[in-house]
């Protein structure tokens, strides 16, 4: 299959261009005048990008916490009470209900150009419930074309029937080995922040994850400056996420590491918090990703990666190309999937043709730009 176009092949490429797909991979990219003979699909002046990669989402939940958002906007503090409310509602929902909700959310992501999505558990907070939620993600993923990567977030909050240190030990010593034995997740995440899991608990859980052969990611520096970013670098975490409270010393540490700084501007906007220091991180040489953090309580919009790119290019001070790269190649790095996120020979043929002529449309339309056509592993997805 040969895709051709006279528009933009972003974030950079020849114009007019041609792209050859073979066996689910990009086999060749070059000028249209040099294109090999093959069945052609002409995309005209459409903007074509890699499939978007949303490397931080929480799709397994039931219940509505929108009134809690309204309360926070009226001045109420953000505490773990909201998470525990979602835990109660989600535990009460049956498998069919949760599967329907997860599939609806992932289909929204796919229809907005996301071809790879990381899905966390975290609204179960018991071994049985967390495994149930990870299995639900797995079953939904089997019947959907987009790529799904599962993350175990048993350390999302401390259940009311545990003390913090006791629960951290339970996550590390019992829950993680069970998750790993079942192959139910590729990563472990920890909400490392004031009122959630302190650095000692986070390190214990993180080392247990690594010992079990799982990757590590952290919610870090969202509510307070704790040193979680430095801990993530020291443990070799794939990604540290949020980073609204990160300071210059943390920026320097991440700039000298392979740990990805995953920025989530949408919940920071809703929480009326500081924005993460995207410009400083980029200038320090850090690898930066953008993701949605679509979840039950602080930002509820699945299918919003075009908006996230626009927020990166406006609120975070990134160029549009930097924001688009962070939502594609950056997300691939955060998920340790180097075959994704770029338009180069040998990469996966995950492609989106947009109803736009230039990547600047992401910033101009703030989420309203939509896909025209989508391919995953070279196969076109019905929209």
Task: Give me the secondary-structure topology.
Layout: E1 2-5, E2 17-22, E3 25-31, E4 40-42, E5 47-50, E6 52-54, H1 66-73, H2 81-92, H3 95-111, E7 114-120, H4 127-142, E8 147-155, H5 164-182, E9 187-192, H6 199-211, E10 215-220, H7 228-235, E11 239-242, H8 248-255, E12 260-263, H9 265-270, H10 278-283, E13 288-290, H11 305-314, H12 320-326, H13 329-334, E14 351-354, H14 361-365, E15 371-376, E16 379-381
Parallel strand pairs: 1-4, 6-7, 7-8, 8-9, 9-10, 10-11, 11-12, 12-13
Antiparallel strand pairs: 1-2, 2-3, 5-14, 14-15, 15-16
Helix pairs in contact: 3-4, 5-6, 11-12
What's the quick description here?
This protein has 383 residues and is α/β, with parallel strands linked by helices.
Overview of the molecule:
There is one protein chain. 37% of the residues lie in helices and 21% in strands. The protein is of the alpha/beta class. It folds into 2 domains: 2-50 and 342-381, Urease, subunit C, domain 1 (Roll); 52-334, Alpha-Beta Barrel (TIM Barrel), CATH 3.20.20.140. The strands form 3 sheets. An 8-stranded parallel sheet has the order 6-7-8-9-10-11-12-13. A 4-stranded mixed sheet has the order 3-2-1-4, with no helix packed on it. The longest helix is centred in the middle third of the chain and has 19 residues, at 164-182. It starts with a strand and ends with a strand. The mean pLDDT is 96.
